[in-house]
Design brief:
Elements (H helix, E strand, L loop, with lengths): L1 H21 L5 E4 L2 H10 L5 E2 L2 E4 L18 E2 L3 E4 L15 E2 L3 E4 L15 E2 L3 E4 L15 E2 L3 E4 L15 E2 L3 E4 L15 E2 L3 E4 L15 E2 L3 E4 L15 E2 L2 E5 L18 E5 L7
Parallel strand pairs: 1-3, 2-4, 3-5, 4-6, 5-7, 6-8, 7-9, 9-11, 10-12, 11-13, 12-14, 13-15, 14-16, 15-17, 16-18, 17-19, 19-20
Amino acid sequence: MKKEYLFIIIFMAPIFNHIIAQNCPAAGITFTTQKQIDNFPINYPECTDIKGNIRIEEANAKNITNLNSLSQITSIEGDLKVSGNAKLSSLKGLNNLISIGGQLGIWGNASLENINDLENLNSINGHLTISSNTSLMSLSGLNNLTFIGGFLRIKENDSLTSLDGLNNMTTIGKDLWVGNNKNIKNLNGLENVNSIKGNLLISLNNSLMNIDGLKNLTIIGGSIKIWENSSLTNLNGLNNVTSIKGYTNIYNNASLANQNELERLSPVSYTHLTLPTNREV
């Protein structure tokens, strides 16, 4: 009998180990220290698909410096949020991530220079927010994205000069908001977007000279609101918009003389221009 028990234990041990190794944290996982990240492949050696959310946000300043030990993760069924990591300079370690079932939020990472390591990401079913990353110079790494199920917000990234990296995007499921990126000069990178199902919002980009990157946009499911872009001289990028379902409100763009480019909009749309000297909210 003892021999039979021993045989069963020896035979079943690899199966038990495999089952245990497959287990991922059931409710998702939050990383607040570098040690937690480094220990992830030890604690979950065969975990590739996270069922819940992943949040990466350091508890103590400058504690999280890299994400290298997360390279086994290929999908996240919930959200991925990377926020408030002062010394994180890249997303290396997320290079095998293919899909995100919820939203992707990257904000408040002062040293983050690029997001190149998201190059295999091809699906975000929720929102995409990239905000307040003061050193971020490029969106390259998002080249495989064609669709975002929620809104796209690019805000307060002081070193960003264009939206190159979003070049394969065709549809945005809700709003597109490009706001308060003080060095962004154009919307290059959005040339293939033909549909925004929510609102188009462009605001407080003081170096923005044109919006030609929207030249293939035809349909806007919400409203257009463009305000306080002091260097914007024309709206040529909206030449091919044929209809919107909301209104158009354009105000306090100091260098913008007229809105002739909006003449092709659907006649059911309400279009309103406020001259730079008359602010209207």
